[in-house]
Amino acid sequence: MSAVRRAWIVIAFLALFAAFQPAEAHGYLIRVIPDNRAVLSRSPTRIQAWFSEGLEPRFSTISLTDDRGNAIALEEVGVVPSNPSQLSARIAQPLPNGAYIVNMRVAFASDGHIYNERLVFWVGEQGGDLAVSGEGSLIDPLEAVWRAISLPALYALFGATLLYSAVLLPAWRNPSYRAGKLPPRLMNRLTALAWIAVSIAALGTVLAVLQQSAALFAVPLEAVLRDNLWDVVLNGTTIGDTLRLRLILLVAIAAMLYGTRYLSERLPDFVTPLWMAIGGASASALFTFSMSSHAVGSDLWAVPSVFVHWLHMLATGAWAGGLIGLAVLLPVALAPLDESGRRAALSAALRRFAVLGVGAVLILSATGIYNSAIQIRQVNDYVTTPYGLILLAKYALVASMLLVALYHHLIVGQDRLTTRLRQRYAALRERWPNLPRSLRLEALLGVLVLIATAFLASNAPPLPTQRESVPLLTARGSEGALSAALTFDPGGVGGNTYELALKREGEPVRGAQVQLRLAYPALDRRAKAIQLDDAGDGIYLAAGLELDRAGLWWALLDVRLPESPEAVRIALTADLPEVAPALNLRQPSLLNWLSALGVGAAMVWLSLPPLARRVRRVHFTPEIAFIFIALMIVTVLFSIGGAFIISEAGAQTDRLRNPPPQIVNPILPDAASIARGAAAYAQNCSACHGARGEGDGARAAAFTRMPRIRTLVESRRDEALFNAIQRGIGAMPAVPLPEPVTWDVVNFLRSPAFLGR
């Protein structure tokens, strides 16, 4: 048995071993409220969890049990609509003292991975130590199987089609063969390789659909097939959309492969364009892997990272997949040739493949450094995590491939240095007969690189180090003897928990009824009132999605004490940041910037030679030069304008839906403003509108119709109420009040003191 054949057997065992390694979810839990192993002095009203990636709403849930396994009723369980990476559930009834276990089972939308987490918290004192810990990600080993066969198959398909169009056609083109421009024996072998790759990739994709369905529904494969659960996943989830697109592309590739055979006798000139179309479709199929890769969940430059990941896959396919194609095609291509013919054919092919390989290695290196800088945050991650160790192994394999490629260059290279080396060292000239064998060795190393790539796709990158806890956003204020501290958790745009600490002369206020209304004065918008739950000891809790944008918010608290039916207004202000201070926020490092510049430089460097060749073919005249410069300027302007239009589209839509007012209410509606507004209303408005705005004042009879103000307040913005008072409206005359007093009246009209709520 030859050494090469033994190497193939070793690789087969490695692939089998790879298939049965447990894979890990790419996403992870960022934070949860209540924290794991937290000891709470009062019952929480809601359980909330934030993850690093978006979740599949249908397959993500929370359950709660006590320490005896009894289920606790939860309401509003599911993914928060305004934040697909947040899971929330409201606890229906206050929890008595004791231990409680939170069970979370979530599915990440991008890759369908299941993440299970078990957490514990105590209400009251900690009574014993429960041995509960996070289970983390549990992935069916079948996922590693379909990745280990799908990815290498698509790499080989893309590499073979690129090899055909960029290497074999320029090197061995023969116009006498109209179908494909290459000898039939070579086209038949290429077609067979493509059919095998497509079949394996399709099988892997079908396995992916079944595995994802079994994982999401937590049922065996028999149930997936029996109950057609695969159809639900394929047509109702994000990962299902990705897999369906991959299947469509593979079916299209199979149809085009059939077309190459069908057209070879009928329309042979269309065979070559069809093979190039197959290459484009296989590149698109590789992109579906990037759509569910680590890059999607990156906490830095997610969209560019997906594109760079795709470039990395294309470069891997061009080099490693192209080598596989060479190893498969060379024996049949060289078989009928004599020694001199083999030498000439091999030299022509390898010289062109060297150009392709150099470009692929350049892109592979630049994008690899970029991807590593995104996923690896500290040097010791390379040796302390499975992801880092596999990445090091991949680097070693790529380095081995480069050494073999250098050996090939020394034998067939045409530059001055390699020519002199061959003239000086006879051993290099005598290595020609061994080239096919060393090419197979390089192809074997390429297969190992592809297996390592499949390993990386199935293993989670190192988790970011936990940042130190930071103070949450808290707004404070007081009214008379009452003081309030309202904490927003996590304190950023999106879903938040609102925790109010209410005190009177330093002592907790118990048994109060508290209503919270959040307003965004810059847009003259206010959310619906929220009734806060009494958690005891002067703590009142709620949660909601009202904070939908960054900026200055008013938090208006109306407090009814047990001994008084009248509401006391406490008005607070909170400046909300774009990103919650309690959540992880990653800033690009110098290596991130340098690697991004490296990717851009590699792309520019590779595009310059073909562009220069095309420019040299053009016979420039002043008119052509002028048109070229004008087109470049127009293209740049259109690009800038298009980018500006796209960036402004969302903001413009929001402005159309929520146009900013011409006049913004500058007066915080606190108790003092409401009191001033009540006095001004009583003096200037109540005679017609009545004390409660019912239109029953002493002068109301003088008007044909007196509208009820209280029914109009909720449907009018502050600006409209201000203008109605200042300028009059309909039969109502203008009331000449100073602007600050007018705003006080507007604040009074919205208060419980006027509306009676």
Automatic annotation (TrEMBL):
Regions crossing the membrane: 153-172, 193-219, 239-258, 270-290, 310-337, 349-370, 390-412, 590-612, 624-646
GO MF term set: copper ion binding; electron transfer activity; heme binding
Residues annotated as domain Cytochrome c: 672-753
Keyword Transmembrane among record annotations: yes
Membrane topology according to the record: Multi-pass membrane protein
GO biological process: copper ion transport; response to copper ion
Sections of the chain in a coiled coil: none
Cellular compartments annotated: Cell membrane
Signal peptide: 1-25
Cellular component per GO, a single term: plasma membrane
Keyword annotations: Cell membrane, Copper, Heme, Iron, Membrane, Metal-binding, Signal, Transmembrane, Transmembrane helix
Gene3D superfamilies linked: 2.60.40.1220, Cytochrome c-like domain
PANTHER family listed in its UniProt record: INNER MEMBRANE PROTEIN YEBZ
Protein name, UniProt field: Cytochrome c domain-containing protein
Biological source species: Candidatus Thermofonsia Clade 1 bacterium
